[in-house]
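Q: Start with the shorter request: fold the first protein.
A: Done. Sequence, then structure:
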Amino acid sequence: MIGIWHASKTVNGSVFKLLFSITENDGYKLAINSEPTPAFILPMDAQIEGNNLRAEGRSFFTPDPVCVTLVFEGDTFRGTVTLPFMGELQIEGERGRGRSLSEDLIPKVMPYRKTGVNLRSDADIRQEVEKLLDRMTLLDKIGQMSQSGASDFSFGSDVESEPTEKLVAEGKVGSILGAFDINRVFELQKIAVEQSPHRIPLLFNADIIHGFQTIFPVPLAWSCSWDLEAIKRACAISAKEAAASGTTFNHGPMVDITRDPRWGRVVEGAGEDPYLGALIARAQVEGFQGDNLFDNETIIACLKHFIAYGAAEGGRDYNTVDISEGTLRNVFLPPFKEGIEAGAGSVMNAFNIYQSMPVAGSRYLLNDLLRDELGFDGMLISDYGAIEEIHIHGAAKDGKEAAKLALEATMDIEMVTRLYFRYLPELIKEGVIKEEQIDEAVRRILTFKFKIGIMDDPFRYVQPEKEMEYHFNTAHLEASRDLARKSIVLLKNDGVLPLRNDGRTVALIGPFAASQDLLGPWQFSRYGMETVTLRDGLVAKGFTSERLLVASGCGVDSEIEGGFDKALAAATRADVVVLALGEDSNMSGEAASRADIELPAVQRKLAEAIVGLGKPTVLVLTNGRPLILDWFDQHVNAIVETWFAGSQAGHAITDVLLGEYNPSGRLTMSFPHHAGQVPIYYNHFNTGRPVTPENAHMKFNSKYLDSPNEPLYPFGFGLSYSAVEYTEPLLDKCVMSRTESLSASVEVKNIGDLTCEETVQLYIQDLHGSVVRPVKELKGFRKIKLEPGETQVVTFDVMEKDLEYYLPDNSFKAEAGLFKLFIGPNARVVKEASFELTD
């Protein structure tokens, strides 16, 4: 019975499919998923006696039990499943995934297909929008500004609302959140265009963060590739798969700068640097939106979370943010600015406050800065329940005042809650707000509905035939594997890697040895049970059961009876040990902040026992944030940071472990020695009492008594199986005027025996000015490929714009004076030169 099984069931008139995956790894494991919407059920232990299977578990989001009893006969099975919200179901099924539920939709949607629909001009769209606005009542308009969930499922507190079908038919919603089922999209869109007052089609919104059905490495991982084209391609594939299922509006990318690894949502961003973060923001927008939003294989990108959400105090999600205007603009604003210049159609507010005002109600941030200064003219959408939270923060006395503040801040769409519908008519009647403010919001929403073509062809994104072709296809899986390889960072290696596939015995030990929990948070794939495990990857490379000894040892945060004994027995028989440790996917992401960012204690205990055997040991990490690895750095032979690597994780990791791919990833977040150093980031200020090699022994300077100031692994760090040397930088001039550029060159040589990729990094320091500047700021990088013994000259051109920063007089400029320029493989190991900027 090992393998994948399926059963179809009709509940309340809708057909859904249950998928069961049975595996063996220190006992039997059962994973359950469902189509068309995910089941969100945690993997569970299973008891098998003969042809009978029994298992008990729970869902990700509720404590309600999940109970499974199945009886197998040949290639069929029958039994009962008790699920949250559904109760006990009698089921019968067969081996395999079964036929796609989308097949039945193909003939249903065909009569609604339109041909000869062309992209409208901007002038034509403006004219049509005004005609429609003139016909709409006030309530019709507010309906376009309101969003409903596709189901009763909630990502936060419960939301009071009427049934979605009723809201759509009455024109009380303009967009739908979380319709992962293409049949549900078709059903609700039919109601909108056949029953609502003006037959206005719906937008369908979803969080497509790092893949739809084919899952790519989490964004923090793919940022470590420093490969903008590969990231853009991943987003384009994600859009292609999601658009085929009816999604038109993405709640991504997240472009928050993140300096505190305790914050769970670091997993969704590009790390701590605003320059690299801005370039990755552009790549993601261009990937999701393509060349033209009228292309029905693209989706609207939404930049989130505007702004400074990643600066939450204590790394605790939804917590207070208190930063200066200079930090806001120099650190947190660049990715949003770049994403807006790339054409992002939407922006989502952050949950936090800025200058004591919740962002959702801040006219300064959302209107003055975002719209007026940055020129954003797209849709502004609230985060989940954020308008209601203006009142909870204490910035409004009630929901009515919260709705007023959000509208005055130019918030166009209220996600899920119903304050706009409840209070805006009353506020207009009282003369507190004007209908023209509502018209502006609706104008923006309708404009995008015309831009993506649904006003002329409402069902153009309902593409079941493309869904069957695109989802989890071979080309997409290969792209995921390629990006996963590029995202893996080799943190330590004393020569034990790459592993030699020459008959030696490998003990693969740890909770991630054979785990499929390699996708990470914020993904809703129906193919999770086909994730390639690390064990799968090694078996595919020819490691037989005699040469690959597998033992979990422990759970992610729990002991397994007899687990340590089995792990130690396997390690004792092996020539080399691969320790597969880390965080499960629930330990990262939204509402997953951690005060302690070490590996769970039971995993450390397992590692200590294994290391005590004295065998060569490789630590392979699965995680969504920088972790405290000080002990491991001192005691294991190699450390491989794989993050959550996606659908092809096991193959990609194995490619790196065996040297079939020379690791090239470089960190985009610093790894601290100790949690007490957090937040830690390379582009910090110098302080008035900086620690130097000369004064490190003295007391009265800015340092810890029990830890170095520097991180364990700095920003930009990563090793390969080769080695490179840098010469001193050569400048073409030492003095540059504002109208000139300066060229800085360095020779980079591969002194190893293997071809490698090197990410050459350029940093700048402004030595003095009217405000202090960081000790280093990334201003450029080049990825180069070097054959053994090859030398390449890498040249960077520095211009005045590279030296600019925000000043307290609200200007953004470079000040004349002395600068240092650094070039090297990471923020710590650099060669330097000096130059001067003159007026």
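Q: Next, the second protein, separately.
A: Sequence, then structure:
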Amino acid sequence: MTVKPVFETPYERAGVITPGLPILPHGTERHPIPGGGSRAVPIYRGDEISVLDFQGLQPGEMVFFTPDGKSDPGRLGASSHGRPDGVLSVLAGGSVSGRRVASALDRAGFKLGDAQCIKVFSEGSRAGEMATFHADSDGLLIVAAPGGPMDPGTQAPPTDLILYIRRADPGIAKGGHMPPDPLADPLVDMNIQPGEAKSYHVQKGQFIQVLDVQGRECSDFQAFSLRSLDKGLDREIDPTTTRTLMGSLYPQPGIFAKYWNVDQEPLVEIVQDTCGRHDTFGLACTQRYYEELGYPGHVNCSENMNRDLEQYGVRPRAGWPAINFFFNTMLDETNAIGMDDPWSRPGDYVLLRALTDLVCVSTACPCDVDEANGWNPTDIQVRTYSETNSFSRSIGYRKSAEAPLEHTKETGFHNCFARHTRDFVEYNGYWLPNSFPSVGTVGEYWACREKAAIMDLSPLRKYEVTGPDAEELMQYCVTRNVKKLAVGQLVYTAICYEHGGMIDDGTLFRMGENAFRWIGGNDTSGLWIREQAEKLGLNAWVRNSTDQLHNVAVQGPLSRDILKQIIWTAPPNPTLEELGMFRFTPARLNDFDGTAIVVGRAGYSGELGYEIFCHPKDAEEVFDTIWNVGEPMGLKPLGLAALDMIRIEAGLIFAGSEFDDQTDPFEAGIGFTVPLKSKNDDFIGRAALEERKAHPQRKMVGLELEGGRVASPGDCVRIGKAQVGEVTSAVKSPILGKNIALARVDVTHAEPGTDIEVGQLDGLQKRLKAKVVPYPHFDPTKERVKGNYC
């Protein structure tokens, strides 16, 4: 039963690999089953059915109904394992996938309570283990990945299964994709072939979905106010007006999501965008464009739009300004506009909502002479939906280039913070509060420095690392000495590639002798740890628990005084007041019977602070309990904007700013996480880090700038005309009353007291005088983190 998956391979041609376009064998389908969820799929005689346990230790249950409504495991060559209790519990849980399966069963008239189930992976499984079956009858297959809410003190998250079906009758041609299922019952559902333009009416409040069926295909979109057309006026989306009012190259789901016409009337707003890469600069392709490339007479989108819009009396244009969905343009250092293959994958889409009655037109671009459509123009699907539907705002997120699409999620604490703000921004696949207008960013900052603040850190990635070889795995993957980590202790550490560049930073919790919890900033680190376990053949599992553990941080001088009133711990465990730095404990709200949580003494503020972990279902109770005690004591909510101010002052690093995969921990300012002398065991990147430490080239330093001008991340640091570094983060520090920055500079000029200049504009025409100062700027001895307030 231990079979490695061979279904999916990256698309490759002539040495070009595109992981974002995975290739499935002809006639093979992929159906993810979320942990704690289920899926119903029709099966036909001769189909091969394979279930993959991607992360390991996830049991699965299957039920197969024949067309006459009988449940018969023998039709798949399997034995019965009794009632499908796991399937029943999943359907009773109320998940979206469960509701869909229940609906499918009701329509078919199948009785699940009388069914017989097939169990897979019931005795435990390795990551990548697969079970395969063959159908000798048509029927309906229900697959579930059973699992309930994970207690924050345990390590058994329900994880995904993947169902592959190899059809006996493959159907569509090799390499082709059918449009995915509609988001709801469509009002309009039309396919647009490359070289076509089609127009359609949309009423105010209705939704428009423009979907790239095969991937890497552009679609020009334009919308006209029907009211203006009735008056003989063309008032379509104007890209320049839109960019000006939205303050970005193109709108994204959230507050700044609308497209406008020249009268500054909003016409549509973006509700969902799974691609995130479009164009508002260029025209739809034109006759002249192809003529100048030597292709006179080439079909083009502008003329196609002219012909189709003629019925509405719209004046023809030689080139149509449009929203070029999925078109990938960029500006180079000379301000020249270039292009490359689109970022869109098969099934990517944008979903818009009409803000007034509209006439819309969409195209499938026919360009086959450059990268615009990846050299291969394909079809576009357009669907419209009733205004009675409700679609949440989301931006597509993928854990890796090969990973399936996930929509932006709301954390378990979202509704609690939404009581205080509408300013949410997308962060690593979640909506997080950016600021709280009733308090103000500076007010949030001072609450954290003087009293206490609560912030949502749920998007931090959590991975449960368990098994007899868990310690060996983590000792090899992180830079810290894991063997010195006691149960109940956590440590801040880095994870590096072989060349010494950082993958991530984060905290490692020792949950037990052979059990750890990794909490990092991105999924790359968790996936990397799992990859190493497989590569080394270690007896360890690495399972994603991010959706089972959401957390808030309570930070500030009064954080202990607030939390000690509501946190109960069992007698063998430390009380909140006894909890030392970098320690954690299972706990409960209020008393013995309270909601289960985990409390860790750590933070990202440079202040005394704690992090509270719970299951998302308990998040509102946790927040309200903290808020009811803390708000009278001055507790305020804190968003990402204020958090950035706080962490820069405290010298706390951030991915993409102070470090990336070209930066080692020494250059990022966290060399203390690499104990080369006291950790004798080998770990990934050790040899490179020894060399880098022996021959350093760059160093993280603090800067103080004269005057009131704040530097920008990426600004060059210069001595004379020579660039010697760059600013990574900067802020005007309220508590220090100084303009400060973090910068990575050449070691030759890293000594405190060195006079340097921060270059702006082209780096030479404008200079900000600055001086290298000790780092971090605020509380360098960490007395406030220890709770020692004067």
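Q: Describe the second briefly.
A: The longest helix spans residues 523-536. Confidence is low (pLDDT under 50) at residues 1-5.
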